[in-house]
Amino acid sequence: MKELNFLHKDTFSYEEYKQMVKEYHEQDKVLDWFDYIYQSANGDFSKVFWADLEASPFLIEWLKKKIVQKSNKKACVIGCGVGDDAEALSDFGFEVTAFDISQTAIELCKNRYPNSNVKYVIADLFNYPKEWFESFDVVYECNTIQVLPNEYRKKARASMSSLLAKNGYILVSCRSREEGEKEDEIPKPLSKSELDEFISIDKLEEQSFLAYDDKQTPSVPHYFAVYKKNI
Fold it and tell me: How far is 66 from 69, CA to CA, in rounded Å?
């Protein structure tokens, strides 16, 4: 097996990040590279290059609608990064479990929010603790599927949906692409047909769907979609 070239990097440029992910994908080691991004921050959460350091405004807007009214409401944040979205859900009254496959990411969260009510844990989306199955009223997914290749994307989507309790909601934030475009891009944005599999395969109901361009220069097209489990 070819030796990978990124094991001791202190910082990553965007191009180096894409090349690293490509090499890991080629060797079918699709989950093994995440921790290096967080390690390269050297304990400083603000140095994680993909972290926005604020909760998604679309998540906040949805939370302000107070759609989930039940007491003891539970939320799960997938690939929680440095914790902004998890803390927002906690602020809105959810009992939050936030997980990441990166041990370093979880350490950064705990150091950043030492008095947090969020339960930050190391976990694998493809092999999460069995007690999480169908346990959450809200699942928040931001930019996880798009960094996975091929069938891992479908497997991730199905695993995310399996976390939902009855009448639970999954909120999906991701880069977007037109059908047939950007097939070799890293990260690979999601097409509408990929997101529609939450409906056609996982049998969720689409509650809202927003296509928008972010504020980067040049802007990057995104989707923010909400699906509900009714069965």
Answer: 6
